[in-house]
Sequence to fold (457 residues):
Amino acid sequence: MYDIKALYQAKSVKDAVALRLAHPEAQIIAGGSDVLVQMREGKRAGAELISIQTLDEIRGVSQDEDGTLRIGSLTSFSHITRDPLIQKYINVLGEAVDQVGGPQIRNIGTIGGNTCNGVTSADSASTLFAWDAIVELTGPNGVRRQPIQEFYIRAGKVDIREGELQTALLIPRESWENCFGHYIKYAMRNAMDIATLGTSVNVRLSADRKTVERARAAFGVAGPVPLRAAHAEALAAGRPVSLELAEEFAQAVREDIHPRDSWRAAKDFRLHIAVESAKRAFIESVKLAGGDL
Amino acid sequence: MHTIQYQTVRFSLNGKDVERTVDVRASLTDMLRNEFRMTSVKKGCEVGECGACNVLIDGEAFNSCIYLAVWAEGKQVRTLEGLLGPNGELSDIQQAFVDEAAIQCGFCTPGFILTAVEILESGREYTDEELRKLLSGHLCRCTGYENILRAVKKTMLRRLGKES
Fold:
């Protein structure tokens, strides 16, 4: 038994919005692999819950007419990894979420929950940052969209307003077209672990595959919320593909990130693995894009 | 005074349509054990880490401890009990666990076997490395995992007609 004060089960997104307005104190529960665990720990004991678990309308991956990839917020990690659209256009996201927890957690955990928690270590978040994902929220005034970088306010706090729930994560065509990426989760174990550092890099090369048109990099656990590496990205844009560039790109990351000491790892160690991971992920991304180095 | 909130759940349990009115605070583990005496569903960590409470819901493995009972509405739920033949015969995967000594205390076994069923029902052949990853959501404190891996692998190969 869980210490739940009341459970409201939404029957549709519209119903969920009405329940959010009627019970502003209630916590949204999607897959439950965070909320129920926190409840067991006593952190959310006695809370009212609004369950959106059964809302199939916001589950699954599809493509809008303009090419935007639409990932319903309730899509589980394992379904994202297996999805043909994800595999075709943003395979790195499927690979990243395939490193969350263990198999059963990946069957219940949702990408919406992973981002709404606002935690920096979320395996999906760095890749979503690196691919300029747009967060779609549905509320009493309809749909609101915002870049994921603005969605994260501070550790554990995201921009979900009164009556709203997150309904999708969008990857616009401009963001996935001709882009190839790689994610590196540095953790102490191969399963059931939280990232010590997460690194997601992706590149778009010129038609002859000799020049980096655009490189993007984002990190988890390199700051209180996931963050982008603006200096490193600016340094790489327009430069010829080479191993030297990979090294320079990786070193530039030091200017962008500000990890801290925690019981999981020291700041210096995180900086070290961030540089090394950025280099490896950059090289791997270039190779995936057909570049030679 | 807090009033207990009840809800009626209708679902399929090991192929049989069932219905129960449960306290909405119940986990699926609570309901399966207390209402249906499915005692293969173990209470281990109760926070989704150990896999002892694992069941199949619509063919996928879930830790039933962090799954609300009311979410089972309309689902096909399978537990270890559902693998037995009409006269209590063991299924191939259960027999393989016996043959390979993949069981010692037995507490993790039902959970492991149901994940193995999801693996086997995919009809695919996996490498050892893939199998290790697919089995990584379960803790066993007795066997050291090697025998478990061997039992799953042998059954996989046997079902694919590739018995060595």
